[in-house]
Design brief:
Elements (H helix, E strand, L loop, with lengths): L2 H37 L6 H37 L2 H7 L4 H43 L11 E2 L5 E8 L6 E8 L9 E11 L5 E14 L14 E14 L22 H31 L14 H8 L5 H6 L3 H67 L5 H26 L5 H5 L1 H18 L7 H24 L5 H7 L1
Helix pairs in contact: 1-2, 1-4, 2-4, 2-8, 2-9, 4-8, 5-8, 8-9, 8-11, 9-11
Length: about 500
């Protein structure tokens, strides 16, 4: 390996690692922002949170890598241009494509690594992350009694407090309904004040109540409904202690196998199998529904065939053969039969419309399912390929702008990444709705940005000044001069101007 290759690789490796972890942290912060409401107040341990963040960090790796490559290539070649290192290399007769060659080999390796990561590691990490998030969502929250509202966090109980002292945690005017026996009128306990605390092993909730009573309706057995007396029992107390179980508040781990049939938890082979199976089922369902539509809403019912016997022979023979003149048949009917025929026709059309609307929604759901699996299949190719596209954009663009650091490269990188992301997201939606083919929708961002990268590489190799403002101002000046010349030369050659010139003379 030549010293030039070592120098370029060393200049690129540091920014790549730095920007990769910066982008990964930003994506994790975005995840926390989205799910902070579901994570807060669950009493999760540090181990559970660390596992959740680690699993989602793995799922964000394929997305973070292309943006990191774009930003790192911009910073690398921007720094080399800012410190005149590119100028020195080019003056030695080394073209830009030769300088980019060792990094191109690294990018090809990263493309392959990203593909294998997406196809083998990503499905497993997605299953683990989604399963853990599902368990956290099911975890019962901590008891948080709010004044003036009923709390149903404890299974089988409804608790309401009128006031709560934030300093002493004293609760005033408590109302507790016991729904464990599922009675129509559940037992109720009312207390003037009380305190709530968790047991030392966190397995029970201890409620100490003061100055209240419990009201319970007693059951009557073998009594005629008309003779019921609805007996009840009321117990008064000055102090009472209730112990309520907190079973179900712990985090219960479920197997990640429950998510194995989702599109984001499969590799390409499994996705291809599901796409083929869903496509076959879709075609079978489509054919069966089409036959059902023809038999119920298009073809003439068997009960109507005797009616043709009352028509002329020519009409009857043509009608029974399936080729008939509807106007001729309609003209043979009486006024009442025509009215009935039109009414029935409107009903049949409405029934057909209702049938088509219902089946259309069903078929759309099939199309969305197929499109979702196709989107995830192509993602395993388009996201790794985006690493190559972003390198072809970032490296020559950094050589052109000749600005290093995180300022200008970060702004440019975010712009191109947003363009790529918006096009990709729009393509995904179109594919899932069945409006465009999966190849056209999923590869649109690459097809659009790849020529941009090739164009920038060509311009940078020829030392173009495409980002120089004076170049564009000079171009517009030439356009303005050309327009001015055409307008005023046309007026000078216009014969209508000659009399005016003679009068002035």
């Amino acid at each position: 390996m030549k010293k030039l290759d070592k120098f370029v690789i060393k200049s690129f490796t540091g920014p790549l690692i730095l920007t990769f972890f910066i982008v990964l942290i930003i994506l994790l912060l975005q995840f926390l922002w989205m799910y902070v409401d579901e994570l807060a107040g669950k009493g999760l341990s540090f181990t559970i949170l660390a596992e959740l963040l680690f699993q989602f960090a793995l799922s964000f790796v394929p997305t973070a890598l292309p943006l990191a490559i774009l930003l790192a290539s911009l910073m690398t070649f921007g720094n080399m241009g800012e410190f005149s290192e590119l100028t020195a290399l080019k003056s030695s007769g080394i073209p830009l494509t030769r300088i980019m060659m060792p990094l191109l080999m690294i990018i090809i390796f990263l493309v392959g690594a990203s593909f294998f990561f997406s196809d083998y590691v990503l499905p497993y990490s997605n299953q683990q992350a989604r399963a853990l998030l599902w368990d956290i969502r099911k975890k019962r929250p901590d008891i948080n009694l709010q004044a003036g509202t009923f709390n149903h966090d404890i299974e089988g109980f409804s608790i309401k407090v009128s006031d709560k002292d934030p300093n002493t945690n004293r609760l005033d005017r408590l109302i507790i309904y016991d729904h464990r026996n599922k009675r129509v009128n559940p037992p109720v306990t009312i207390a003037d004040s009380g305190y709530i605390k968790i047991s030392n092993d966190e397995s029970a909730l201890i409620m100490i109540l003061y100055n209240g009573y419990s009201f319970t309706e007693l059951e009557e057995k073998n009594v005629i409904p008309a003779e019921r007396k609805y007996p009840s029992r009321r117990d008064f107390f000055r102090e009472q202690t209730l112990v309520l179980s907190l079973s179900g508040f712990d985090l219960e781990r479920t197997s990640h196998e429950m998510f194995r049939n989702t599109s984001w938890s499969m590799n390409m082979e499994q996705l291809s199998y599901f796409v083929d199976s869903l496509t076959i089922n879709y075609k079978i369902r489509q054919a069966s529904q089409f036959r059902e539509f023809l038999t119920q809403n298009v073809y003439i019912e068997q009960t109507r065939e005797p009616h043709f016997a009352m028509m002329p022979d020519t009409v009857s023979s043509s009608a029974t053969s399936g080729l008939f003149n509807t106007k001729a048949i309609f003209d043979t009917l009486s006024i009442e039969e025509k009215r009935n025929a039109l009414t029935r026709s409107v009903e049949v059309i409405q029934e057909a419309n209702t049938f088509l609307l219902g089946k259309t929604e069903t078929m759309k759901s099939y199309i969305r399912s197929i499109g979702k699996y196709e989107v995830d299949w192509h993602k395993k190719l388009t996201i790794p390929f985006a690493c190559m596209v972003f390198f072809l954009i970032g490296a020559p663009l950094g050589a052109i702008i000749r600005k290093g650091g995180l300022g200008t490269p970060a702004v440019i990188s975010i712009f191109f990444f947003v363009v790529w992301y918006v096009i990709s997201l729009s393509g995904e939606k179109l594919v899932e709705e069945g409006l465009v083919h999966s190849i056209a929708g999923m590869w649109a961002s690459s097809f659009i940005l790849l020529p941009v990268g090739i164009f920038l590489t060509y311009k940078a190799s020829n030392d173009s000044v495409i980002l120089n403002v004076d170049t564009y101002l000079s171009f517009f000046r030439k356009i303005k001069d050309l327009i001015y010349k055409i307008i005023f030369q046309g007026k000078s050659k216009n014969p209508a101007n000659k009399p005016l010139e003679n009068e002035q003379l």
